[in-house]
Design goal:
Blueprint (H helix, E strand, L loop, with lengths): L2 H48 L5 E8 L6 E8 L2 E8 L6 E8 L2 E12 L4 E9 L4 E8 L13 H4 L12 E2 L7 E2 L5 H23 L2 H17 L1
Parallel strand pairs: 8-9
Antiparallel strand pairs: 1-2, 2-5, 3-4, 5-6, 6-7
Amino acid sequence: MTGKDIAKITINLIVIYVIGGLILAFVYAKASPIMFIKAKEEKEAALKTMMPEADKIEAIGKWEPHHKHAEYYAARKCGEVTVHSVKDEKTGKMREEKECINPQDMGYVVESFGKGYSSYINILVSVDKNFTVKKINILHHAETPGLGDEIEKDYFLKRFEGKTVDTLVVIKGDTSDKVEAISGATISSRAVTEDGVKNGVKMLMEKLSGSGVEKKEEQGKEHDHGSH
């Protein structure tokens, strides 16, 4: 094989790699917004299931567990709901819009992340006003099939009901007040319990316990008045 042949093969390979890279970049550019919208819709649907008795769930703050963007929410019950007819700016058609009057906080929902065996586990946690866990939901993970992926199963998720920041502790074997680890998946169990859920509840307590909620709401009102 001559130097000319080697050069020709090299050039052909470079062209193939460049074309392949451009195709991948094009596909990602097209798919990325779709994936983002889908993930957002999935999270919004999951939020509604975290505290179905609430009339509305509103984002009230952001935090960064494991340097990942996450939000926390207030689950609110309306004192009264009124319905208004408003014109849709895009379609020009009239549609109904609900207004929540005198909303009262029923509890809170926080998105969190736990560092598992082979992935960061994305979790939603709902708590009542005393910061007792009502429900958790695993949004996304890539834990080991047949072991770590048991974190999605109802039998494990139900172990969190009624837990507090002091009882969010993983125990190997039977336990009446803590969280029993999944057999063969202690790392994934701890990632959900002690990293994701417990840290999420602790953050809510630090931000919202006592006068923190009222102070935050007052600051929000002052900001709204100042922006007009």
